[in-house]
Structures are given as C-alpha cells and as structure tokens.
Amino acid sequence: MSLDERLEKLSENLPDLTDPKVLTKERLEKMIASNLGFDLFYGTERIDKKTFQALLDFAKEKKVLEKMIGMQEGDVVNIIQGVPSENRPALHCSTRDFFDDVASSQRATLARERAKEELTKLEKFEEKMQKFDHIVQIGIGGSELGPRAIYEGLVSFHKKGKTVDFISNIDPDNISYILEKYDLKKTLFISVSKSGTTLETTTNEKIIRQLLEKAGLKSQHQIISVTQKDSAMDDKEKYLECFYIWDYIGGRFSATSMVGGVVLTFGLGMDFYKEILRGASAMDLVARSEEDNLPLLAALFSLWNTTFCNIPTLSVVFYSHFLSSFVSHLKQLEMESNGKAITKDGKNITFSASPILWGGVGSNAQHSFFQLLHQGPPNAALELIGFKKGQYDEDFFIDKTTSQEKLLSNLFAQSIALAKGSENENPNLNFPGNRPSHILIGRRLDPYSMGALLAFYEHKIVFEGFLWDINSFDQEGVQLGKKLADDIIKIYKKEKDHKFDLAEVFIKRLQEKL
Amino acid sequence: MSLDERLEKLSENLPDLTDPKVLTKERLEKMIASNLGFDLFYGTERIDKKTFQALLDFAKEKKVLEKMIGMQEGDVVNIIQGVPSENRPALHCSTRDFFDDVASSQRATLARERAKEELTKLEKFEEKMQKFDHIVQIGIGGSELGPRAIYEGLVSFHKKGKTVDFISNIDPDNISYILEKYDLKKTLFISVSKSGTTLETTTNEKIIRQLLEKAGLKSQHQIISVTQKDSAMDDKEKYLECFYIWDYIGGRFSATSMVGGVVLTFGLGMDFYKEILRGASAMDLVARSEEDNLPLLAALFSLWNTTFCNIPTLSVVFYSHFLSSFVSHLKQLEMESNGKAITKDGKNITFSASPILWGGVGSNAQHSFFQLLHQGPPNAALELIGFKKGQYDEDFFIDKTTSQEKLLSNLFAQSIALAKGSENENPNLNFPGNRPSHILIGRRLDPYSMGALLAFYEHKIVFEGFLWDINSFDQEGVQLGKKLADDIIKIYKKEKDHKFDLAEVFIKRLQEKL
Questions:
Q1: Are residues B206 and B186 both part of a single domain?
Q2: C-alpha pair distances (Å), B143 with each of A292, A424, B179, B190
Q3: Based on the domain organization, do B270 and B333 belong to the same domain?
Q4: B513 band by pLDDT with thresholds 50, 70 and 90
Q5: What is the pLDDT of residues A298-340, one digit of tens each?
Q6: Residue A414 CB neighbour total at 10 angstroms
Q7: B214 and chain A: CB distance < 8 Å anywhere?
Q8: The domain that contains A128 carries what CATH number?
Q9: How many domains are contained in chain B?
Q10: Does B371 touch chain A if contact means CB atoms closer than 8 Å?
C-alpha cells in the first residue's frame, strides 16, 4: 500500500541528474536552505520543484509541526494506540530549554525546572570533581553513545590534564583496559542507568566497586549515579552524588540531560557544556518553524529516498575527522527509534520505511566504501556533513590551497560525481550517476554547533517518525534478546529451570574444546 | 537473470526457523564447521541440507578452490576480460608465507623472497626505532584501516611506553590533534602510499616535514616510507628508510606487508607481529582446503543471503570490545572489493550482489541498532563473532557467572532470537524471526588468531568475488570523485581552467557567509 499516492506517482518520473540540463548551477543555487549558520544543499537529491512542494504538503497533512511543538510541550507521543505501551511524553528538549523559554506548557515548564535543579546541583558538584584526573562513565547504549560522540567530536576543547572514558560492554576486556590505563585513586566513576537494572551497567559497577575496595579506596566516594528517582541507584549511602533523569527522557535522547552533563562538564568545562545546551535549544526552535526547518527538510529527503525511491540504507559521512563516534550515535538514534514493524495505531507498516543507517568520515571513506556507492547497487542515499573551517585554529597551506579547502573540495566532488555520473565505453569506468545526496555545512564544529547538530538529528529522526506514523520513542525490539540472554546465563549458572535449551549446543561445544 | 537456477528454485522454499521442529538442537549440532581453533555455527542460517549441498556444488562449478590456489600461486586474477584493466596477480599471501611454504610457483616464490627481504630489513631497523616513543603512520584507506584494526584489536599486547597513531584524513584537525598529543622529537613517522602520489598522504607528509624542520628537527631522520620501488617516495635522501610493496599487493590486502609490518612491530614487537603472520598464513592454507574451509563457507552464506534471499546488507557484530576498528577495515574490504557493477567479463551484473557491510561491537550494539534487526525491515543478514576467553587474563565473577559468560550468553541469545522470533498478541511485542545469522567463535583474540581472522575475511571476500564473477582487486569506482576533487581544488586556487563549474555554487555560498 502506498503511503501517499501523489508522491508515489511523482516517484515514477524522477529527475535525471546525469542530464546537464537538469543538474545546473541555477538548480543548485535555488535548492539551498539555511538556518543557525548551517547551509543545507539539496540540489543533488532526486527531487524537483513539484516533488519538493508535494513533500511539504504531505508534511502539512501529517501535521508534523504541530506534533513537534506538541512533543516539546509534553504531549504523550510515546504511545501505541489500542495496546499497552509506554504512554508518556518525550521531553528531552526540556533538558536544555534554559535560554529562550521555548516551551510554555505546564508539563514542559515543570520538566524544565527539574532539569535546572540538576544543572544547579552539577554546578556545585563541579568543585568536587576537580581532584580527579579521569572520569569513566559506566553506561551502555544512549548512556554512552551521545556523550561519547560529543566529547570525542570536540577534541580541541578538551580540558588539559583531564581524560574521559567509558565502560559500556559486558566484555571483561573493556574493564581490564580501563584498569590498565588509569590510576583508580585518581578516577571518578559515573554509573548511568535510568532503570537502575541494566545488566551490563550494574555488573560493571559491581566489578568497579570491588576493585576500588580491594585497592583500599572507598567506593561510595568515587562513584556517582545518574538514574531515576527511587531506582536502586538512587542511594546517597552508596554514591557520592545522585543525579536524576525522568521516564520522559529516552536513552538515545538523553545526551543533554545529566547522562551527558556530568561527563561533559568534567571533560570540557561548564561553559562549553552550556554552549552545547544553547546550540541544541536553538535548534529546538528551528524544528518548530515553518521556514528553513532543517531537520524537517532532512526528514523529508529521508522519506523520499526510503519510501518512494525504495533505497534501504542511508550513509552518513562527516567530513570532520573526529565525528566518527557521531556515526555510532546516529546508528542508535535512527535504528532504535524508527526500526519498527508497526505504526502508532498498532498496524503493520506496509510501505518502505526505517533505513539502515551507516557511514564514516571523509575523506577517509572515499578510500574505503565509496567504490560501492559509485558503482555498486544503488542501495544507499547519502548525507554529507562538513564545516567551513576546521575545529583547530590551525590550517595548513600546501600547493596553493589549505587542507580544509582540499577537504571541502572532496566533499563537493563526491556529491556531484554521485549525481552526474560519467559515461565511458570501458564498462569498468562507467558511472551510472543519479545517486542522491544532500550536503549540510556548518561554520565550525564548536560546542554550540555540536549542540545544534545533536538536536538537528534528534528532530530529523522524530520528524521521520511523524511522517511514517511510527512511535520513535520505545524499543520493544530489544526485549526478546534480553530475555533469552537471561535464560542462557542460567545454563552457565547450571540452574535447571532455563526454558530455551538451544544454546546448550553452543556452550557444550565451547566447553569441550577449552 | 538468475545466477543459478537450482539455488533460485531452492530459495522459493526457505526453512522456517520459527518452527521449533525445524530449529532443533540436532540441527544446531549438525551445522558446525571447525578449523584452526575456530567454530562456525550456521544452524541459524536459512539453509537446509539440500541448499547446503547445492551451494557446495555451485562453488565447485565456479572452481573457486582452483581459483583460490591460483590466486595464491600468482595467477592474474586482477583483470577484466576484453577491456583495459590492471591485469596483475594478487599475491598478498606471499607476504606471510614464511612458515609452511604454502605456495610453490615461481612467481609466488619470488614474491615470498621479496617479502622476506623486507622482513629482514625490518628486523634490522627495529633497533633504530627504539629511540622513539611514538609512531604515527601517514596513510589512508588500506594504509590505515587494516593495521589500525589489528593494533587496536590487540590492546592487551601493546608494548608499554610505545604509542601508535594515524594521520589519514586531509582534514587539518587530524594533524592538529596529533601535534597536540605527541612530542615531535620522540615521534617516528611512516609515510605509506604504493603509488607515492595519494593526495591526502603526500599533503600530510609535506605538512609534517615542514613542522619537523620548523621545530629544528631533521625530517629525513624521522620519516620512513613504505612504497613501490622507484616511486617518488623511494628516496633514501629524504627518508630514514624505504620499505617496499609491489603492484600485486592491493591496499586493502596489504596489512601483512610492510604497510602493517613496521607500525605493528613498533607497537607490538617483532614476536607478536610474526605470530600475526603465522596465523594469517595458516588461514591461507585453510582457504585451499576441501573440508571445513571456513572462509568459503562464510562466502557461501553471503552468496545465499545476498543473491538468493535478496538481503541488501550484512551486519557484522564482534563480541570483543576492541574490534570496532575491525568493522571499518571490513567495510573497505567488502565494499571496495565487491561493490562493483560488472563481472570479470565486462558484463553488467544482473543478479543481486555486493552487500553493504556495516556493524559494531556487542553487547553494545544490542543497545543500539538491534531494535531494527529484530523488528525493522528484513534488510540485514548477520555475522556474530566472539571468543571463548577474553583477551586479558582477567575475568570477573559476579552473580554466579563471569563477564565473558554473560557476553557469550548475549551473543548466542541474539542469534537464536533473530531466528526463532516470538509471537505476541500485542503487535509491538511481536518478533517475526527468520532473520539469518551465523556465529564464528575463536579461542582467544591473540596475535595468531588475529592474523587468522584477518586472512579469513580476505579470503571470504575473494571467494565471494569468485562466486559472483567479480574482479575483487581493482577500485575504478573511486576515480571519478578524485578527478572532480582535483578540478574543484582549482576553483580554490583561482585557476581558470577547471572544467566542472557546479561546485562554484557551494564555494561562493560558503565564502559569502564566512
């Protein structure tokens, strides 16, 4: 079944970007949207004026702006109609709405006040963190990916003498490596779990606690928690401090809450952390606007490519070297939010939705997987992101251009090459072209634009959910694996009451051969 | 057009893994192949006995074993019939064939002797490296990804007091970060480019050379090169030492040549480096064998899922925390090798081939993109890799099991959950199942098994190429973007003779807003 007949019809007649009369300078000049210092170039998408208008109309029909404002104001957006579901708002914007008072509803205002309290607590706690040289966040999924992406992306803003690391994996090597690298005495640990029950996190925290005690250190002086009020991790006897999050903050949307706040303040300082919040909040406003709504436009391209052009994956390539962790964050954000089987009405999705998101950093990726993007099957749409200036003040002038100019030349070249292609009588040198992409260029990757970028993607993914009628805020798909893993652990424990015996085959085999 | 009618026919009737009478313990027990300490469990693939036999028959028809032996012996496998092409052998196995004299042809023997010479040179050079604390490899694509994956994967084997890093990106931030981190005086640089002309590498080398001179250091005493004989980088006046590679070693297959050799010897020591070579060479032998040929089996599952089940992507998940860089290596290996449009006869590929490869590390990925794998569109086959023991000697016993046991329980649980699914009247808790995967388990990720794993994937990808009739050894698809980038750089240089003026739009816009 088609999601929209008008768009379906338009997709039967895509503009041919390999035709120089189609892919013109005039086209590229017209197809630009700008906001908050970002330019979005979309002349290399397979879209014409008519399609663009139809996409905007579709967004209007779906009331996506109203829904976005509703989400920011505290509407119950995390819901599946007619069946038991989480039934709650998604108020992550409230964790940074400290500058323009974007939201005004009672619910959003309360959420903002709560978030402000935590920020005030953090401002006081900053002093206590000073005696530590290292901070290690124990957390997995959204408790690692967003904060890590922000921290690693802002290399030139790192506080001297302070290091930030993560223990996320249940793999014992993850902890052993951390122990080898850092002096326990000088290390502050942050345990992050909303529920307070995540297997990986609680296990790793127990291990760290034992190791601290073994080293003669007091674990309650070196571990803090970020969790929900009244969870098992909300305990001032066991933790040096407890910071709060709430059920309306989803893990993958939690980077601007204390899930990111403590670790980023330690690694970057409070001023830069606030700049991140300021940038994110400014993008929250952009996401409410009728004009030049960058996240909405990006979501519409995603809708077009995924649903109407049937392209099953989206490749995101950052032309900024230290954003490679940002790709990992985006993988969760996109696929955990929108990798679903049903709509918000509990009906099976019958159209193509939910792209697989993957990617890397450029120019490196050009020397890796771009071969397939140019000549392989047309299974990826592209998003190319860059910045006018490098993050460090230094640039290098070699052979009449700077490195940043060379980098951007490569970015632009890829977008054009993928669109226009090139014919050659040698079939191995033939490029079919018509591979869609768009380009997002920011001024410079500083804390403010990092915050804006974070929120840009959060809203893009949410808009996609609104367009596809998907609940982007739950993740029931991870439950079955968890349940089975708990059951298989019982085999290792030699408990007899485990239900699924298939894994016995693997375990027996491994034990035979040890 | 179908690649094979018998397999096509079999794909119309796939085994239903959600049926407990199909997915039995007996099935899992039968569907195991073992070699070199690795177990490959493939009972969770959508394959039955008949299909398995048909796949083996197809491999035989395609003469893949003869071709593999031919490749290792120096046959001209890098060729497209009927059109100009690179026309050369792919002799990467010769760079590690030092233990069992696997190859015996004159060409392979000569290649082995040449590689041995370089190893001897490296053994002598090891002494000279001792005075440096840091080594930074300047190289991009295969000159970074393989060596980095191996180095970062073997954390517990790192030499104390020595650090290894890479400058790959033309992004100036990449160099600035390195300069901030390392004392130039204590840093040895390795410039790696087969042709000696790679834009990123030659530019970055020039920058480093200027910075060394500016710091009063002699660049010819601190930079060595890895390149082809007689390239611009084969120059003992400019480099402390020059190591050689040859035109028959492709970048993405070069990790066991001096491209990886120098940097790995610095970071891990010569003994461990040789263990890596030993493991890789042992797997080269496995790839020649009729029985339990692990890379061939993995390639056959890839053929089955990609071509006959039309699954467009392969998600590789390592349940070993520090193999996340290995995913980046594999992305190049798979997509640059097999992301092609034509067969070796120069004809258009008319069947589904060339999966997009992406992935991550487990258990982390379960808290990120596994939502989509379980409930999203069925666009990914899975490969799950783990080890019986952790890499460090230490494991942690909490709540009656060790962390490694918890990790493996998660790995096994995912494979079974994806296959068997689970029905629920709440559609949001419904899991369709029948999502194919296989599991590869090694003993422990030490240098030997790292080498074996590296070669396992090299051969898997090459076998895929043989099965699809693709030339896996060239990468003409990267040329158009390079050409366009060179042209766009001319705009920045204000040279008037550039040919493609589309990018002027982007550049003008950026300059307006600076």
A1: yes
A2: 41, 29, 20, 10
A3: no
A4: low
A5: 999 999 999 999 999 999 999 999 999 999 999 999 999 999 9
A6: 30
A7: no
A8: 3.40.50.10490
A9: 3
A10: yes
